[in-house]
């Protein structure tokens, strides 16, 4: 078992990474929660695989469990699902001494985390991420969110869980496209960290190679993300480095209108931001091809649809005042923040189209 300790200003908790940890969930949860009602929030894909195991484990450990299932997919990060879950918690007389356990991918983690953060001004939360993206990224760091018609993740909170339990064995039921998507996030972390972590990705030459390497890759990614989050819980400084690839990625995701998954859009963003900064002489040109090779090895897209990305990015919520902060690497393991005035954005981005 790999244990990663997260200490923030408001809370200290552990992230436990172990093959088959779901089979020990009851024991793990009793270490942080006394007997109580637990709402297991899951989705229509994950629930049929793992809700019974989780329910049995928690019930045997003395918890009273209610499973609450939302439709699988991004559309569940909505006010209507928040309302429905809160109504169910209230109808079942959940109090401030009860808890929510999020069993699912990033959608369930973000939604259930948000609900836990606002129900009765906040009840206890445990994250059990089931997709690779959620295991390496969304379950770590305490960000919760739902979407609005005007954009993704526009309503949310910072809300740290009491425990995160990661079981890489359950990735076996994750469709290959989603496995590759989560791997894109690992490539991002490895590029930011460099060293042995960066080197270890050489062995991933296909989607099939991800599963056997998953425990180590997850542990390295989570350790890195936890370090960054501890240093900057509310994204006022170094945590922005985690947005590497996301500035273009968010815009690509919006333009793709549901055709690309988040991690696929970020894969494009990673390669394109390297290309953009290489064109401006701030990043080495071979970085673009290195990252591209890692991402293409698992079938992730890396090329940009020819649309007006710069225009969309003007509306990105990360535009703070008059500048947008980019993340680029001057070498593997050497990330930098780089603010660009919004008024210069179109010109700056324009260079991207002329570089092949
Ligand atoms: N909070 C954060 O810091 C943060 C960071 C990154 C992304 N996110 C959010 O995460 C979401 C994307 O996460 P995601 O890719 O996990 O999406 P997701 O939750 O929709 O999961 C992807 C798909 O895989 C299915 N699935 C998940 N685990 C499975 C398993 N073990 N077996 C079979 N099927 C499984 C889900 O039902 C879904 O259909 C987005 O909403 C994004 O905004 C949040």
What this model shows, in words?
With 356 residues, the protein is α/β, with parallel strands linked by helices. The protein folds into 2 domains: 172 residues, Rossmann fold (3-Layer(aba) Sandwich), CATH 3.40.50; 179 residues, Dehydroquinate synthase-like - alpha domain (Dehydroquinate synthase-like, alpha domain, Up-down Bundle). It contains 13 helices and 12 strands. A 7-stranded mixed beta sheet has the order 1-2-9-6-5-3-4, with helices on both faces. Strands 10-11-12 form a 3-stranded antiparallel beta sheet. Strand 10 and strand 11 form a beta hairpin. The longest helix has 22 residues. The mean pLDDT is 91. Nicotinamide-adenine-dinucleotide (NAD) binds next to helix 2, helix 4, helix 5, strand 8 and helix 6.
What's the Cα radius of gyration? 20 Å
Q: Helix coverage percent of residues? A: 40-55%
Low-confidence stretches: none
| Main sheet overview | 7 strands, mixed
What CATH architecture label of the largest domain applies?
Up-down Bundle
Number of helices: 13
Number of domains: 2
SSE string: EEHEHEHEHEHEEEHHHHHHHEEEH
Spell out which ligands are present. nicotinamide-adenine-dinucleotide
Distance between the termini: 45 Å
The mean pLDDT is: 91
Report the CATH superfamily of the largest domain. Answer: Dehydroquinate synthase-like - alpha domain
**Shape from CA axes?**
globular
CATH class of the largest domain: Mainly Alpha
| Residue fraction in strands | 15-25%
* Structural class by helix and strand composition: alpha/beta
